[in-house]
Design goal:
This protein has nine helices and five strands, in the order H-H-H-H-E-E-H-H-H-H-E-E-H-E. A hairpin with a 2-residue loop joins strand 3 and strand 4. The mean pLDDT is about 85. The longest helix has 17 residues, at about 90-105. It has helices at about 5-15, 20-30, 35-45, 45-50, 85, 90-105, 115-135, 140-155, 170-180; strands at about 60-65, 70-80, 160-165, 165-170, 185-195.
Amino acid sequence: MTTISTDLIKKLREATSAGVLDCRKALEAAEGDFDKAVDILREKGLATAAKRAGRTASEGVIDVYSHGNGRVCVMVEVNCETDFVGRSEVFRNFAHEIALQIAAASPLYIREEDIPQEVLDKEAAIATAKAREEGKPEAIIPRIVEGSLTKFKDEFVLLRQKYIRDESKTVQDLLNETVVSTGENIIIRRFARWALGETTQEEA
């Protein structure tokens, strides 16, 4: 497989505003050919979707989902650009799917950028200590730590999680599809998840 550099991913992201993972996938599919990767993103509608990302999204819906006879409750705000789309079945279904995803997969953050640096530093320190405890060679520990951080993000970042109904796609993929389908910028603004008996960070 062609090795894709971080700089090339960054360049493609700046050119299309598509997500990091989508840029990486496109470059891998194009075997490192930048122009082909741009075409792949455009064919998927992701470059177009990215151009819409600058538009103001202040309409939308707050979806509330209760599961297990009230043992788990989720509230999520999803925004779009117009009231027309906000009332549409496609948009409402998307917002509800996000609520179901949050209930089932318990994310902690919406985007990768939302993770505090101290959390990443702590996870990196734990992975480093574990690797040394297991007697791993110092030379490969940075790779092990990187893999551990990737796994952490895939598990706890909503947009990076596998979509519960179709694990061949991520929540980001589902969002991109909905942006293309509605023709509007869509933002998952915020969410809260409560499970019966859990202690919140405020109470801890």
